[in-house]
Amino acid sequence: MREKIGKVALDYSFYPGTDLYSDGQVEEELLEIAKNYSRKEFNRIINEREKWPLLYHFSHIRENIVSWLPITRNDHVLEIGSGCGAVTGALARKAGQVTCVDLSKRRSLVNAYRNKDFDNINILVGNFQDIEKNLTETYDYITLIGVFEYSEGYIGTENPYVDMLKIIAAHLKPQGKIIIAIENKLGLKYWAGCTEDHTGLYFEGLEGYPRSKGVRTFTRRELEKIFQDAGLGNGEFYYPYPDYKFPMAIFSDRWLPAEGDLKEINYNYDRERVRLFNETNVYNTILREGLFPLYTNSYLTVLRKKDVQENTDCIYVKYSNERSENFAIRTEIYEDPEGKRKVYKVADCPEGEIHLKNIQEACKKLEAVYQDTPIRLNQCMPAEKGIELEYITGRTLENVLDEMLKEKREDRLKDTFKKYLDTLRQAGTVHFSMTEEFKKVFGNAEIPESELCPEYINLDPVCGNILWADKEWVMLDYEWSFSFPVPVRYQIYRVIKYYLYTSTARGKLHSMGLFQEYGIDEKKMEIYEKMEKNFQKYILGEHIPMRDMYDRISPGTLLDIHGTDFLGKLHNRETFRVYLDWGTDFREEQSFSFRRNETKIVKRIKIPAGVTRIRMDPCEQACMAKMIRLWAEISDETTQELKYEANGFPIWEGFYAFKTADPYFISGKLPDGTKAVWLEMHIYPCYEEIGGFLEESGKIMKEKEQQQEEINQLRKKLEKAVQRIQSMENTKIWKLYKTVKRD
């Protein structure tokens, strides 16, 4: 049985008649979206509905894992486990033919509807083992994106992962490639407190999956062993960051990240997590030790048959597609067998082609602007797949300044920085005039016409984009360049800002007064910040970046140990502290604490001679506490109940809600001869929000009680008034009055 959805063909010849796995009702919503909305509308729908499954299946970032692959119209691709088509469209835009295999009919329908305009997609619905036996052609690419870890479920053999690859390799052309994307069992995010992606359990993969069956991820060494055993030992390992699901950069052994490159820490859109440490800082340590391939969050492998060699490999990809499609591009770096490297910028979609042409134009125009200065442009030329830039190595101005800072040569740093900024300032030769183009990008800013502007401006010559040598400074990137007047002072403001404020180590440089030296006062800063916000809006267009959805989609962080005194707070949660007042009020040095292990506490507190009061802190966080009894044990063997006050809100007798992190009870004056104070109390630590809620609830209850009391008082007054009236009606005078009134 076959079905056509638009131009996409679905083949149900191997479909068992029912979906053997499903995510339930959400798949109906996925199908509804695929039927009724175009690809360009997915970003808006994800933002409006705020659901993880929608983000996971419909985000364009999912395609980043394969869109860089050198697939051509001559290639046939087999996509195993195509699901809802998260990457199918990217494959179809590049390949001559894409054959999808998936067990779920509903998911295959989602795939078909979202990609209905492609005439080169054929979806085979059914069990892979049944379909595989009937595949008659071989393929240039076979992809397993988030699928290989489930091989145990696909192949019921003793060694399913090796056998899966052997079966797949039989359908590979001699020069073909197998693409596998999979989580790393030792990924840093798991050490830092994210749950295992498939099981939702903390540390499950790190511990070797003791509680799970049917799914496995692997370390690099384990994967290499599997590949060797399957006869596929010739391949490349790539490292998608932050992971293969939503990669914004793809590194390799020949292009590893530098310190500071790995800054993304919010990737738990599906499940809550804990945060045990600062992942960026730990990654920097890992990079210094050369251990990144061991702790990367994901692997992307490109496998070839052992006797096949590749002439040129892509060694690095950086995506810039969390923005308007008009500016969506990616940067690719290639290396040939001799080690020669080339840099390309490629449009991520057709709308980005104009942006690439503007970059080519900017190269020529900026050369004229800086022709009599040390600034040289990284040369740009048209290429078959976009534009090609020179591959140039060296130290950036940012590196140079940071080295001076580290060596405490602040004066040299300032002189070097000013030398560069002065060169930028010299390019300002024409007066500012407001244009419609300026308003479109920066808004209607209050810029005086006396402000000087370059004839053509690169808005982003920040220190990290400048290769620095004594006599020549190479401007590496000039993507954001404009032909209309833009104040050179705004350009300088951006250069200073993005150096001073992107590293805490540079905080000491704020006092150098660089802004002031270039005539940038607080008023201008306000104007430039508004321009900057409008510029960022211009780049985004109507696109909503995934990072802006994190707080609304992610369950968030259950517990953040990093940056907090967590262990201290954990200790204080179960610590009861007592302060003694010798007539000089309560002091920290005149206090002691003890651990409590249960909610209920019964404690005898020994009182030294001279103590007049005691303060009792049930814990050091918001809580609820019920003082059951507080009494003094006196030297003559008698006891006396003690009065007390609390800084919480009384809910009912003896029961208090504390929304403060410093709750306390203070006794009244202790009787003479007190040798001990006994207390009996129930303590329930809670979050401040809960304590606040209980306090507000208590206030409402008190208000209601007061209102009820007022109603009761009014009722009593009414009853008394009725009684007076009745008494008056029985008097002779009242009866006479009624008689006279009738007459």
TrEMBL record:
GO terms for biological process: methylation. Residues 697-731 form a coiled coil. Transmembrane segments: none annotated. Pfam families: Methyltransf_23 (PF13489). Keywords: Coiled coil, Methyltransferase, Transferase. The keyword Glycoprotein does not apply. This is Class I SAM-dependent methyltransferase. The lineage of its organism: Bacteria, Bacillati, Bacillota, Clostridia, Lachnospirales.
